[in-house]
Amino acid sequence: MEREHRHLSLTAAHVALVHRQIEDAGPPAGQQTQTDADYADWVTRMIATHPAPDSPTRLFAYGSLIWRPEIDHVSERNGLLRGWHRSFCLRQMRFRATQDNPGLMMSLDQGGECQGVLFELPPEDPETQFHQLFRREFTVKPNTNMPCWVSVTTDTGPVAALAFVMSRTSDLYAGDLSLEEVADVLSRCCGHLGTGAEYLLNTVTQLEARGLHDPTLWRLQELVADRIGPI
User: Fold this and answer.
1) Per-residue pLDDT, 5
2) Which listed site, 93, 138, 146, 152, has its alpha carbon 20 to 30 Å from 59?
3) Are 196 and 185 within 8 A, CB to CB?
4) Can you list the domains of the chain with their CATH numbers?
5) How far is Cα 100 from Cα 20, in angstroms, rounded to an integer?
């Protein structure tokens, strides 16, 4: 079947209107960050609990890991994760936001399902790979983006994969926002790593390129483009 051709409302020109050069101010005052010992503990814990240690280690990517994985992988394919959905449910005051202009980042929230990309990691040195991944995916304590093992459905059956899911007990959890409220935030937030609009645009673009259409994100990019204004 021929893939439906869709035209994004949100463009690089919209992103450029929001983007500003911002210095990294570091963690907000009073916020604790993960230490080397914390990361080492997480790495040991996740390797020890691998549900299929004799099988390849896979990573389930649903957001920026798709377009900026930052780790080596030997293959990729699409997969479906049930019981979780991608959501801009993580409040941020750094990275693509500031304390004066808070933002939202994506995580996996409970309920529904999520199409994403399965990366198969090289078999060598999983400790180093996990250290690199964990430092990328979570920085604060208590942890907001929790590593866990999940079962992902593929065209050849279920496989175990590492995923990062939102902790609903975190003070930074923002899963109760409407799509319109999320669009308000993403249309204006910017930090030293870029804008929320760029994060959204990259994610939608990469999903569509792989034949993964997320109706919620598609509607969100329309709302963000509308809030930024005509080009």
Assistant:
1) 65
2) 93
3) yes
4) 12-22+29-228 (3.10.490.10)
5) 14
